[in-house]
Design goal:
Length: 432
């Protein structure tokens, strides 16, 4: 295998051409439209193993080519300068709803966008000039603004708007603070969520406390929508379906979706498996999301239950307790507390209760495609910055289970294609 360190510009260009051809041919074979910047292009690549593999290779080679073509000094200078303004621009586009200021099937002048957003036209022009350099909106020959694939996706998907709002307004200020946070804590991150870098930007309050307490709960609802928006990463609903044999649970089995937000995951699973019953548990502030996420025809099998997962588990002896992107939000001591509440409610032994955990399982450097490694690394840093938590390797997951209860055993681990996370099946063995 040729080392990435020895690849030349021409080598990488040839690799990009070959990988692009493979991806294009695979998309043609499975009948998926070819990618473009046009506003009607699909927002998500298909969950096809061969297409995803070609896509990961193509992105990796493109990133390497960008690095070589940019050069070390400009890579550093440009990244430090451009990245903060790219982030700021997306925040402005989202906060002032540029997405709907431009009709999805028409165009708008700068003056019209200024009137619809309430911003002065000079600011509108400055923001759009930078965003258009990244193919977010475009300027037509008449000087009017039209949608591109990215801006159209934002317009059509309100949940993506919540994703941007949560990350850029709730979390990003803490990212800027993280270096000072580490300096003040002797080079270590705090283990108290109320003392995280994000908490320091929120007046010394833990992120989840702020999300829950803000006004009428709008901030927690935005967070819930942000989590629901993830349809093409480790949060993908198709990965939940593919990572565990839900159909094998049998008719009448009960799945408790612990911290399940509004229930979009349970609703999807219930639609695919008519014999299963679901209980979605979360805090009162997200109960309103249940009405939007769960269709009326599924509500006899998908119920919402107000519950704090640090409290005693009311659903005892369930077939499965689902923890989807829950434990990575908490330091080890609190993750153990969540698991112990479940252990107290589980049926042990063969045919007993199981815990299904969908979360990141950190891979070793260079063992997964570079784009997925970047996503995993960013998720790990996000947990440290926002919540004083972290992502875990397989060994760390097994140690966490052991600390919670020595009878908890990792029975299986599945990494669905194109997924930055994994689905783990955990059983509670009989006492010996």
């Amino acid at each position: 295998m040729v080392s990435r360190d020895t690849l030349s510009l021409v080598d990488l260009a040839a690799r990009i051409a070959a990988d692009a051809k493979k991806l294009q041919q695979r998309l043609e074979t499975i009948g998926h439209p070819q990618p473009s910047f046009a506003p009607d292009t699909p927002a998500i690549y298909p969950d096809d193993a061969e297409a995803q593999a070609a896509r990961m290779k193509l992105i990796t080679a493109a990133l390497d080519l960008y690095g070589l073509a940019t050069g070390p000094r400009d890579f550093i200078v440009w990244d430090a300068f451009l990245s903060k303004h790219d982030t700021m621009t997306f925040d402005v586009l989202n906060e002032f709803n540029f997405w709907h200021a431009v009709p999805i099937d028409n165009s708008a002048s700068y003056a019209e966008i200024a009137q619809r957003t309430g911003l002065e036209e000079a600011v509108v022009r400055a923001v759009l000039r930078l965003s258009m350099s990244r193919r977010v909106f475009a300027e037509g020959q008449d000087g009017h603004i039209v949608h591109t694939a990215v801006s159209a996706a934002m317009t059509r998907d309100r949940l993506l708007q919540s994703w941007i709002g949560h990350h850029l307004q709730d979390v990003a200020p803490g990212c800027v603070q993280f270096a000072r946070h580490l300096r003040a804590n002797g080079g270590r991150s705090s283990t108290d969520p109320a003392k995280s870098a994000v908490a320091e930007t929120l007046g010394g309050r833990a992120l989840f406390d702020v999300l829950e307490a803000e006004g009428d709960g709008w901030r927690m609802r935005r967070f819930a929508e942000a989590m629901a928006s993830m349809k093409s990463s480790s949060h993908d609903l198709e990965h939940v379906h593919a990572g565990f044999d839900w159909g094998g649970l049998g008719k009448g089995a009960t799945v408790v979706d612990v911290g399940g937000s509004g229930g979009h995951v349970s609703a999807s699973l219930a639609a695919a498996h008519p014999g299963l019953r679901f209980v979605v548990q979360d805090l009162p502030s997200v109960e309103a999301e249940y009405a939007a996420a769960v269709p009326e025809e599924l509500r006899d099998r998908v119920k919402f239950q107000v519950h704090d997962f640090f409290a005693e588990q009311p659903e005892r002896g369930a077939t499965v307790y689902l923890l989807r992107h829950i434990l990575h939000d908490w330091p080890d001591s609190q993750a153990v507390a969540v698991l112990r509440r479940l252990v107290a409610a589980m049926r042990p032994g063969e045919g007993g209760s199981r815990i299904v955990i969908m979360d990141v399982v950190m891979a070793g450097h260079g063992t997964v495609p570079l784009p997925l490694e970047r996503v995993q690394s960013c998720m790990d840093l996000q947990m440290r910055v926002a919540l004083c938590a972290h992502e875990r390797t397989r060994a760390q997951w097994e140690e966490l289970l052991k600390e919670s209860d020595s009878r908890l055993k990792l029975k299986g681990l599945v990494v669905p294609p194109g997924c930055a996370g994994a689905v783990m099946e955990v059983v509670l063995e009989d006492e010996r």
